[in-house]
TrEMBL record:
Domain VOC, chain residue ranges per copy: 25-139, 167-287
Cofactor(s) needed by this chain: Fe(2+)
E.C. number(s) listed in UniProt: 1.13.11.2
Protein name: Metapyrocatechase
SUPFAM superfamilies per record: Glyoxalase/Bleomycin resistance protein/Dihydroxybiphenyl dioxygenase
InterPro entries for this protein: Catechol_2-3_dOase, Glyas_Bleomycin-R_OHBP_Dase, Glyas_Fos-R_dOase_dom, GlyoxalaseI/FosfomycinResist, VOC_core, Xdiol_ring_cleave_dOase_1/2
Phylogenetic placement of the source organism: Bacteria, Bacillati, Actinomycetota, Actinomycetes, Pseudonocardiales
Record's catalysed reaction(s): catechol + O2 = (2Z,4E)-2-hydroxy-6-oxohexa-2,4-dienoate + H(+)
Amino acid sequence: MTSTVTQPQTSQPQVVEVSTPRVHNLHHVEVFTPKPNESLDFFTRVLGLHETHREGQSVYLRGAGEWARYSTILTEAAQPGLGHMAWQVAEPDQVEGWARRFRDKGVEHKLEAGGSRFAQGDTLSFTGPFGHRTELFYDFERYEPEAASKLLSQPVRFPTPGIGARRLDHLNITARNVDEARDWYTDVLGFKLREAARTPDGDIGVWMSVTSQVHDLAIMRDGSGERGRLHHIAYYLDTPETLLRAADTFVEEGTPIDAGPGKHGLTQAFFIYVFEPGGNRVELFSGGYPIHGPDWQPIIWDGANIEKAIVWYGGQLPDTFFTVAT
């Protein structure tokens, strides 16, 4: 008697199409300044960014550690504040994917062909629910240095003018209702909540990201009633020691220090905040921590923990830190 072994039938692997578009990373910010010459001097000579282009009332700047033509746009305007923030999407076809998603969700938007923005491909622009102008795109022009670094993973030979800010790290915006803003950026744009400062009346601040950084975007409560305000933009420094040197530079330059040097419990950031000549708050940032797992559980600071969340050490933040935005 013989037995027959029946092999299990194998089906062809299913191809799962990922149709949901994804925001990939922060690319640049546009900052309005009523003092364009003074602001440009601060961002280049003091912070150490490099000018790469001029167009109309705008100057385009990049850090020594950045691959794109620019990460910061300074634009002359009557008042300081945020012109727009711009995010790169994950795939070339996702610009149109976002346009379809916005149509489905009733988000007003404008889709423009590549070339409508300097060194930037097809661009989807819209205004968020609290007034912040935003752009999404995929293609951008890379910076081509005159003297490339022999260290191939570094875009240029590392120059060290001023403080030597390496790259744009994140930005912090304000909203009248942080809970609503948190949910909108989560549900519509796919941001992930990493940390929050929470009270019985709701979140007073949230720290969110689309990358492995602990935050690409922070949102703080704004009781002013104004829309589209900017709390600060932040640039990354290699080490906390570099941040201490920056503090010396600011004192030498007469740059108004808003807070720090110190360390936040939230995000574990070493920080110093200053006001650039145009009136916008700028943070220099070092430290932080990466998030690699997809199952990250947000860190919630509440009750007696909130004080240490805001300042782990380094002195209290001034009251104006929670009220002044541009």
